Structures are given as structure tokens and as C-alpha cells.
Amino acid sequence: MYGDHTIPYEYENEYVRFSISKNKGYISYNRSYLESNLDTRLSSYTPNHNFKYYNEDIERLILSDERNITVCPIEPVNKPMALSNHLEIEFADTIIIRPKFSKKIFITFPIEVGIFLQSRKRKKNIDIITFALKKFTLYGPQNGGMICTYWKSDVFTEPPSLNPLVEGMLELTLKNDTDEWVDIQKAVFDSQCIKIYYSDSLVAMRAEMKILSKTIAETAVNNSPFKKEMEKSLELHDTRGVPIVSKKMIMEWGY
């Protein structure tokens, strides 16, 4: 599914079907989730929650004569709705790291798939698809914290085997610059700093988390692929013309 495709193009897996075709003077795009398969997956996740966006059918008429689309993973903060520019990944196991020490681990992050029309001046996002089940959380105090897209991940010491349509792999280098042992339970990232690379079998990011004090850490995503042959994803904020203010995220309310 990932990569550049010539219109007309159609894709289907066990959860979703979408197609894009050219007609006289316009382009037609259609997407539908296959509800029978999704219902089973959603009920096993949380039977009392209503995930409306997983079964909405989309039909779009696009007045354009473009010939190609790009399908790639994007910043995973748009579904179920775009409430935040931040992603919080909670670790399933607390990590304890000794003073003045650096270690690389592997965690996961949720996948969202962007469908882009290759416009002459700027690529246009026409749809966002996801198979990852996410929630929202508050990072920091109730009177001044930030809403984050929430994801919980196992911690691995070696690259895990993942479904590249559901989960991506985050290679995270932990650096404890303090003189104390510290416990790490989460990492928070600014989505505008996220740099994703992909292949047919893997979606990945590389990042660093630097512990600065007992309560403050700094995260930054590296703009480099996990493997040389991987392609860089389009950045949704870039296609919308949103300027990047900073390349780092300061976690000032603990980690």
C-alpha cells in the first residue's frame, strides 16, 4: 500500500477498502471500513467505547486532473480527532537507568496512513486511515497540562516484528545526564518534530530522550532512517504549510 501510485488505484485488506479513479473533469475517491472485521477487533479492545470514525464511509469528488497519489504513514495525532499536537507513549514496564548512562531501547507508536493527491504546487491530503486504537490523556497538571494522543507500548531490547499498517517501531536512545538513578515510565513527543520512514515491511522513527533533572526530560526525533533503503514519509503539517517552531520537546512534568 505504501508509496506512489498512478490513478486509478484500489486497495483492500481485511479492515478497509479504498479506491481513486479519474472521470471526465474530476477525480472520485471512496473509502469504507469493513465493519464486520472491525467490530470484532473493537469489542475486544473496549466493548463500551464507540469508535465512530472506524466505520464512516467517505466519498469525495475532487476537481483536478492530477495523475498520482502518495500513500504513507503520517504523524499519529489525527484520529479519532485532531485534539492535540502531542503524542504520549506510556511504557508497559518502568525503565530504571543509572546515572550518566545511555542505552537504546525499542518501543512502538500508532500508525495513521495519509492519502495525498500529488498536486503541482503542494500535495493535498484527501483522507487519513488508521487501524490503531488510541485514546487521549492529560500530561501535566489539570490546570495547565497538555492533552496528548495516548499510546501504550511494550519495551523491547531488540527490534520487534510488527504489522506496518498498525504499529511503527521507535528506536529510542535514553540518556541519563543526571547524577541520580531515575525511573522512566513515558515519553512525550511534539508531532511537528516527528520524522517517519517506511518500507513495505516496516515503519520506523529514531529518537532520543535526555533526562535533565528529576522532573524534566527532553525528546527529539532524528531525521534519519532506521534502514538505508527506507523512504521518508510526507509530513502532514508541512503539506498544510504549518511552520515548525522547535525541533525538541521539553517534558517539564515528569517522565
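[next item in queue]
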Amino acid sequence: MGETELKVVQQKPTCVACRLRKLCLFGGVDSAELIQLEKYVKRSRPLRAGEHIFRVGDPLRIIYIVLSGSIKNSIASAAGGEQVVGFRMAGDWLGLDGSETACHTTNAEVLDTTVVCQIPYAQLDELCSRFPSFRSRLVKQFTTEIQREHEHLLVMAQADAEARLAMFLLSLSTRLKARGLSPLVFVLSMRRCDLANYLGIAPETVSRLFTRLQADGTLHVDRREVTIENFNSLQAIVAADETRLSSVGRARVVNA
């Protein structure tokens, strides 16, 4: 499917009343400006799992904000397969990956029934000029996204497998809480193989870790539904790995 197909509008969005207003690109924009801004926004039809919002090489025409559902971002790996680089949920934006080349550099695949809001990329400069608060929010969101990607790369390079999964679950819990959803009981919309790909570990390792964490009372897992039974235990796993990495770092200095 192509990007232009998403332009079928389900209904006109009302940004002022949107429950995700504080999280999306319009967060911090006052109501008077928001009424003007929402004239530039369209809402997609419901998208089904497996559909692509855009693919690598597609021209950059639209910036998307996830209204509901979830999306997987991926690129081609060095081995010719797929490398998952992120998961988007309600309130997240996507599409600016192609701002340098005017073409998308990642794939965006729908994981479950999803609706996105759309802002024409060609009008982004106009919006930033007319609404300084929107420009500030856009810069902040872009900076946050870069920071998140750097943190993920650091984790993938250093943390052990259990700590990677624990960090992912803690991060997901925090993001869900910010959206007014349960931080302790949630459904993982991605397949285990996609999660494993993102975390840089084998799918069987992910399954083994979930089994271990359930056995020790940290989690309760029922297919894709996860319940965090012991939040402190997840934090302790991360802290222990940070201590391990710190010890390795000190040992390298001593042996240098």
C-alpha cells in the first residue's frame, strides 16, 4: 500500500478535546492556537495489522501522530533481513526520518488496529513560523527521539539479555502511565520475534526470560498480556547490570 491511501479521512479531529494532546506534537500549544492548528490535521481510516504507513524510499509527504494502536519501525539489516528500530504507540509521532533526503529511511508497519493523525510535511515550515510554541514542541520531540535512540544503542552494546528486557518493560510501563493507562498490566502488540530483534537477542532467549521472570514472581505472562507483579524486581535487575558494567569499566582502567 502507498502513503497516499492514508489520506482517506475518517472524521475531522478535535485536537482541543484530544486526550493525547499533552503528549503529541501539539503539547504546550494553547487552545486558541490549537483551533487554528487543527485545520491542518486529517485523520486516517483505521489501519489493519500488517499494513504499511510508509516504506524505505517513499517520498516524505506527511508527518504522522499515532492516535491509537501501535506501529513498528524497521530498516534493512546488514545481513539483508529486518532490524527493528522502535515501536510507536498513541501520542508518538513518526515520519521525520526522511527530513534530510525527502524520502523515508525506515519502514512503518501497523501492529494492531491503528489510527493516525496526519500533518502535511510541506506545511511544516508555515506551522513553525505561525506558531512558535509548535516549533518549540517539534524541536523538543525531535531531541527526545534522538536521545531515546542513543540510549537504546548504548543498552544494546553493553547490557546483558535480562537487563535489556527489564529496561524495555520499565520504559514501556512509564510510557503507558504517561498516557493514563495501566503501567502494570498491558498487552505487548509486537510478536516475540520482533521484540527479540529490537533487543538484539534470540527469540528463544526472550521466551526463556519471560518464563524465568514469571517463575520468580516478577511477572505474570498470559500469551501477550503481561502483568508486572514486582516492579522493584525489574529495577533491581537493571541496577545489578549497571553495577556489573561499572565493575568491568574499573577493571579495564586498572589493567590499561
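[queue empty]
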